[in-house]
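To whoever is on call:

I kicked off a structure prediction for a single chain this morning and the downstream step that reads the tokens threw a length-mismatch warning. I double-checked the sequence; it's 389 residues and nothing unusual in it as far as I can see. Pasting both halves so you can look.
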Amino acid sequence: MMRRVYLDNNATTPVLPKILEAMRPYFGEHFGNASSIHHHGQETRAAVEGARESVANLLPCRASEIVFTGGGTEADNLAIFGLAREGDHVITSTIEHHAVFNACKHLTESKRCEVTYIPVDGRGLIDPEDVKRAIRPNTKLITIMFANNETGVVQPVAEIGTVAAGANVYFHTDAVQAAGKIAIDVNEIGCDLLTISGHKLHAPQGVGALYVRGGTPLEPMLYGGSHERSRRAGTENVPAIVGLGKAAELASAGFKRGDDLKMATARDRLERELLALDSTGLNGRGACRVPNTTNVYFDGIEGEALVIALDLKGLAVSTGAACSSGAIEPSHVLTAMGLSRDRAKASIRFSLGKQNTEEDVDFALALVPETVARLRELSPTWPRPAISI
């Protein structure tokens, strides 16, 4: 059987065995509706509230400030549409995940709000002073991601939080790619809203959470029962919420063990050896990045061709965001950083997870150089060595 190594953990992560075991009883014997007042309901209610405490401890914040959602996209949308009213002004960036980018696009297309898009420099970083200059009297919300899903670049969210607080503007940060990888403190950041997603930190797909600072006036998107303190109607997905709680618990314990440093060491070795190849470069060089992610361009190839060729040999990587797979246009993140169309389309993201080993890095390093060389040989635009007669 072919060996397969998965290095696309920014797209989704496998559910870890301890997380699956924590979830298992809530698919069977503990089946109650968490809103029911009898024994079965109170049993699952206790599990939901225990998970809420675990997620709150990861951030850290009060458990009452955690709203469970159906995923990161829903949490981002709840933050944006729950705050922005007609006539308000919203500030975001040119490198946001589509959950934020397209939500803001809808605000402008529906003529509900005006949106300002802050640019980034060649490292993929936002300048907090640009955010400050963009603030208007009617600015209601600043939404800037914590860590970029394609490059792993960590934004100066604490500085942006200070800018927002000074102008009395609400601040939301999409921390989907940061949670579980680097320590987060919502009070140090000064954010009013923060998004996490279960399947990015080894919990199941289909569950997320939105931190909502106490006193933030958030309108619900879904109307029904009074679930999640009337902020997200609908019967709770108890198994998934339990999984997210367990994932948060494991992430907190992992920081104490130094799991993030171990992952950074493996990522750095992978990155160092890939960058030793001719005509390669690092996207996001010079910026602080989450410890599991590297985004490398290989001039002279098509990134999707390399992804497919590596997959045929057992290695899973990506050209960028999973929600944009198959897109004809190059990454909006990389082009916003100033990359040419060709170089953006020649870029590959490698993202490690808790399950990856040094042997997985060895496997990747055995495959990538030879595959890149082969694709360059087949490329009609790649320069051939001169033939001496």
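Update from on-call: the warning came from a stale cache, not from the record. Cleared it. Sanity check on the structure: The first helix runs from residue 17 to 23.
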